[in-house]
C-alpha cells in the first residue's frame, strides 16, 4: 500500500483540470466540514467490456492508491489497475456478503481519513442497484471528500450487445428496471403494474428468481407468449443470450446451463434481436461453423 499523499490540498492525480472541493470546505451534501486528507471516488465499471469505461473512470483507476472492488467487476477492467495498487475485494453474492455493507462504508471513511485516494469500483453504475447512495451518505456524514463517476448500467450495455433496443417507437415507449433479487423468494413486487402494453421490463440479477418472475407475470395477466431474453455475462467474450417466452424460458435456461451474472429482458422488443444481433454478425465464423 502506498503512503498517504503529503499535500492534502492537491487534486487527484490526472484531474488537475477538475475543480475538487478543498479540505475544510463546506460539504454541499450535508453542510459538514470536509476534514479528510484523502478522497473517495465511486466509479462505475460498466457491464464487463473494459472499452465501455468512461475516460474519467479510467483516469481515476490508474491513479488510485487503493481500489475496493465488487464481484461483478470484470477481469478486463481489473487488468487496468496498475501493479502495486492495493486491491480489496468487498463483493457480494446471493446470501453471501464477503464484507457487510456497513463495514464497507466505514472502511471508505477510514481510508480517506488516512489520506488515501480510494476508488470504490462497482459493476455497472453506482446508483442503479449498486448501493452507491448508501456509501456516499456515510462519506458525506463523515465529512469525506467524494465524487461519483457514472458507468454504463447492465440494462443498456447488455441489451445493446444483444441487439435488443430497450425502447422502440413501434413496440415500447417506456422501460422499467426491477431488481430480480426477491427477498426471501417472496412475490412482494407490484406485479400488476408490470403488465403494461408498450413497456419493456428489465430484471437485474434475475436468474434465481426467474421461475417466480415468469409465474407471477402470467398470473397477473401477461401473455405466456411474451418474448423474453436472458443475457449471461453480457458485453464480454463469454456473453450468452437465451431467447424464449414466459412459458418456456425457464426450461431453455436450464438446458443451456446459464450462469450469473444475468439480465432478463421481457417485452416485444426482444423480437427485434433476430434482425439486430450485430455482435453475432461481427464474430468470425470458425472452420466448420454454420
Question: Could you explain the architecture of this structure?
Answer:
There is one protein chain. The chain is of the alpha/beta class and 290 residues long. It has 2 domains: 114 residues, 3-Layer(aba) Sandwich (Cobalt-precorrin-4 Transmethylase, domain 1), CATH 3.40.1010.10; 124 residues, 2-Layer Sandwich (Methyltransferase, Cobalt-precorrin-4 Transmethylase, Domain 2), CATH 3.30.950. Helices cover 25% and strands 20% of the residues. The protein has 10 helices and 12 strands. It has a 5-stranded parallel sheet with strand order 3-2-6-1-7, sandwiched between helices. A 5-stranded mixed sheet has the order 8-9-12-10-11, sandwiched between helices. α3 crosses α4. It starts with 38 loop residues before the first strand and ends in an 8-residue tail after the last helix. The C terminus is likely disordered.
> What is the rounded Rg?
21 Å
| CATH superfamily annotation of the largest domain | Tetrapyrrole methylase, C-terminal domain
Shape: elongated
Task: Give the number of domains.
Answer: 2
Number of helices: 10
Helical content band: 25-40%
Beta-strand segment tally: 12
Mean pLDDT: 86
Amino acid at each position: 500500500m502506498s503512503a498517504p499523499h503529503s499535500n492534502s490540498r492537491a487534486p487527484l492525480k490526472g484531474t488537475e483540470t477538475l475543480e475538487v472541493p478543498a479540505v475544510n470546505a463546506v460539504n454541499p451534501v450535508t453542510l459538514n466540514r470536509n476534514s479528510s486528507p484523502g478522497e473517495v471516488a465511486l466509479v462505475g465499471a460498466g457491464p464487463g467490456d473494459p472499452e465501455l469505461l468512461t475516460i474519467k473512470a479510467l483516469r481515476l483507476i490508474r491513479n488510485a492508491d487503493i481500489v475496493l472492488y465488487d464481484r461483478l467487476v470484470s477481469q478486463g477492467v481489473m487488468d487496468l489497475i496498475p501493479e502495486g495498487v492495493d486491491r480489496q475485494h468487498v463483493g457480494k453474492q446471493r446470501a453471501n456478503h464477503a464484507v457487510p455493507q456497513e463495514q464497507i462504508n466505514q472502511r471508505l471513511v477510514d481510508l480517506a481519513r488516512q489520506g488515501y485516494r480510494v476508488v470504490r469500483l462497482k459493476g455497472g453504475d453506482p446508483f442503479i442497484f449498486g448501493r452507491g447512495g448508501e456509501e456516499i451518505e456515510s462519506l458525506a456524514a463523515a465529512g469525506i471528500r467524494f465524487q461519483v463517476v457514472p458507468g454504463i448500467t447492465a440494462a443498456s450495455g447488455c441489451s445493446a450487445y444483444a441487439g435488443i433496443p430497450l425502447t422502440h417507437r413501434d413496440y415500447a415507449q417506456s422501460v422499467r428496471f426491477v431488481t430480480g433479487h426477491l427477498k426471501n423468494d417472496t412475490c412482494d413486487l407490484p406485479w400488476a403494474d408490470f403488465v403494461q402494453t408498450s413497456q419493456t421490463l428489465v430484471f437485474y440479477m434475475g436468474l434465481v428468481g426467474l421461475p417466480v418472475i415468469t409465474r407471477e407475470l402470467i398470473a397477473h395477466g401477461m401473455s405466456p407468449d411474451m418474448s423474453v431474453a436472458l443475457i449471461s455475462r453480457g458485453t464480454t467474450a463469454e456473453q450468452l443470450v437465451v431467447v424464449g417466452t414466459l412459458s418456456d424460458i425457464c426450461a431453455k435456461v436450464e438446458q443451456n446451463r446459464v450462469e450469473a451474472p444475468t439480465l432478463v429482458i421481457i417485452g416485444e422488443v426482444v423480437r427485434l434481436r433476430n434482425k439486430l444481433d450485430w455482435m453475432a454478425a461481427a464474430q468470425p465464423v470458425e472452420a466448420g461453423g454454420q
